Amino acid sequence: MELRELRSFLVVAEEENMTRAAEKLHLTQPTLSKQIKALETELGQKLFVRQGFGIALTEEGRLLRERAEGLVAMADKVKEEFTALDNITGGVLHFGLAESFQIKYLAREIARLRESCPQVTYHVDSGTTRQVLDKLDAGIMDFVVLAELPDRTRYEFVKFPDHERWGVVMAKSAALAKKKVVTPADLKGLPLFCSDQSWAHDIPRWAGRAMSGLTREASFGLAYNGAIFAREGLGYLLAFDNIVNTGPGSGLVFRPLEPPLHTDLYFTWRRGRALTPIAERFRRQVCEAFGG
Fold this sequence. Notes:
- The strands form two sheets. Strands 3, 4, 5, 6, 7, 8, 9, 10 and 11 form a nine-stranded mixed beta sheet that branches.
- The longest helix has 25 residues, at 59-83.
- This protein is 42% helix and 24% strand.
- It folds into three domains: 3-79, Arc Repressor Mutant, subunit A (Orthogonal Bundle); 89-162 and 264-290, Periplasmic binding protein-like II (D-Maltodextrin-Binding Protein, domain 2, 3-Layer(aba) Sandwich), CATH 3.40.190.10; 165-261, D-Maltodextrin-Binding Protein, domain 2.
- Helix 1 (3-15) packs across helix 3 (29-43).
- With 292 residues, the protein is α/β, with parallel strands linked by helices.
- Strand 3, helix 5 (103-116) and strand 4 (119-126) form a beta-alpha-beta unit.
């Protein structure tokens, strides 16, 4: 199995059309078909089936896509790292970020770095803690920002300057919007929106025994989407302050939780892993700026 074949497979999976994929890869259709056939023969599985005017992945094809995306990303990362070994003023940085207003501090440090190293480029991804840590562990990402304390045996980290204040984002017309703060008793029986991670860890820490009276209507990985549902009166979003627009004209309001609930953010990297020169330079810069 060659990386070239995996790259071709991923393009075909994205386009769901052999002709368009061949054009995108600058290959003839017979050549591309031959590569896909070689993969199917090597794996002993059918990867695509005809569907309407295109093709679709089989169950085996979806499994290969999941594995191939990681392999190709890792290969690209290795190439980037070795290309940058002798270049301390350029290179590529890969970040996995949690949603937070404090990301502004990281953005400022990236801007500072690019003032002295204009050749630096960067990629930003987002996801749950498990998703970004998997990519950090695999070496696909250089740094991740976590909204929970990292495992000190596996990761090193520095805390962001501020902390996140939890509250409820709701429609301006909601009855709870008249209150200055929201208690666990206020939320009893109401349809709540919250991420899986926060519902399992942060909210129980706040609600205590009252947790049994809280009902999660839906899980949202992105607060923005949850806020749209809240604005339409479908429920109440438990989220950090300043993560969605609750200003005039938004149709939304934010009310802090009582008792107060706060979460710290951590700039995190893999313990014991060698960083590229530019990544190490950025790590030192962030630690100095954040007081780590």
